[in-house]
Amino acid sequence: MENMEGLTVTDCERCPALCESRSRIVNGDGPEDAALLFVGEAPGAQEDAEGKPFVGRSGDVLHEALRERGLARSDVRITNCVRCRPPDNRDPHKEELTNCRGYLETELARVDPDLVVTLGKVPTEHLLERSVAVTKEAGSVHDVRLGETTHRLLVCVHPAATLYDRSQRATFDDALDEAVALVGEGAGDQSRLGDY
């Protein structure tokens, strides 16, 4: 892709509203050979300011949950469907998701994780290309063709859901337990998951 060097999108002006609202492009973060790759929807204000995905309150929830499972943030890769902050933190529009999809597919193909975990409704519906009741489907695993490659995908509630509704924490934790178990079983190379 003309605007992508390695796993980094260096310049993109496909979405005028996002170009106007962003201060920078927020690329994926983490090992380029990660066994476990998380996909969120789009950067928020703090991510836009720092240039890294999931560094706000939702990131804190995710990082704590990873630590509880013997993992560090540096053991996994975290990215978003859309790499630029939408105005007022709104959900990305369908056209914006479509405009950025090639970047995400390229990243997934190059990292080639053992498991992709979608965090919340937007990335889950975008990658499965159907309507999803995330709370009901959390922990479910699907084989999905993305670009030229097929990936194993696990549905998970968004970490932010646990901040607004504590009852979601068990659903979130169960899905993460399943993700770590699946990667542990299928990875073969345990070093890809740090000290877990």
TrEMBL record:
GO MF term set: 4 iron, 4 sulfur cluster binding; metal ion binding; uracil DNA N-glycosylase activity
Top class in the EC scheme: hydrolase
InterPro entries given in the database record: UDG_Type-4/5, Ura-DNA_glyco_family4, Uracil-DNA_glycosylase-like, Uracil-DNA_glycosylase-like_sf
Example GO BP: DNA repair
Pfam families: UDG
Keywords: 4Fe-4S, DNA damage, DNA repair, Hydrolase, Iron, Iron-sulfur, Metal-binding
Catalytic activity: Hydrolyzes single-stranded DNA or mismatched double-stranded DNA and polynucleotides, releasing free uracil
Domain Uracil-DNA glycosylase-like: 27-176
EC number annotated for this UniProt entry: 3.2.2.27
Membership in a protein family: Belongs to the uracil-DNA glycosylase (UDG) superfamily. Type 4 (UDGa) family.
Entries under NCBIfam families matching the protein: UDG_fam4
Entries under PANTHER family matching the protein: TYPE-4 URACIL-DNA GLYCOSYLASE, TYPE-5 URACIL-DNA GLYCOSYLASE
Listed name of the protein: Type-4 uracil-DNA glycosylase
